[in-house]
Amino acid sequence: MSAVPRYQGEDRKQLQNTLRDAGFRSTEGRLVLLSTLKRARKPLSVEKLAAAVGSHLDEANVYRALEAFSAAGIARHVDLQHGHAHYELVDEKHDHHHIVCTSCEMVEDFTGCEYEKLAGKALKQTGTFAKVTSHSLELFGVCNSCAKA
Fold first, then answer.
1. Cα(56)–Cα(117) distance, integer angstroms
2. SS3 at position 34
3. Is the pLDDT at 4 greater than 60, yes or no?
4. Are 56 and 28 in contact, with CB atoms under 8 Å apart?
5. pTM of the prediction?
6. Pick from 50, 106, 126, 141: most CB atoms within 10 A?
7. 129 to 4, 115, 123: CA distances (angstroms)
8. Which residues pair with 133 in a beta bridge?
């Protein structure tokens, strides 16, 4: 990924509004980071995000911004069991989850977790929770290529 911002015009305004609506100042570093998350096709590590934003933010500031974005509901931490954190942009309109190859670490999205049904079942099994407010689901297995090897 390039360190050069790829947003223009309306996209920049949309990114600025996203930041401001979440209570953040619209700095160039945050705009570039948010744009990078928006363009990503899979969750990215802090290291890859820091490389992508280049001189706009160092790795420590990328991590701090991602933690703040997560707390504000803009981004989410995804545990792909790779030994480090991954982040992706929250997409309220398109609920998706991940399936991860434990051999080559390939990641693919999938939909259709039947969240409401699963949440209802979980709440019936526990007497200590009143409601489920969010969810995350990652499945782990072996991809076709690794299974043939």
1. 43
2. helix
3. no
4. yes
5. 0.81
6. 50
7. 46, 16, 6
8. none
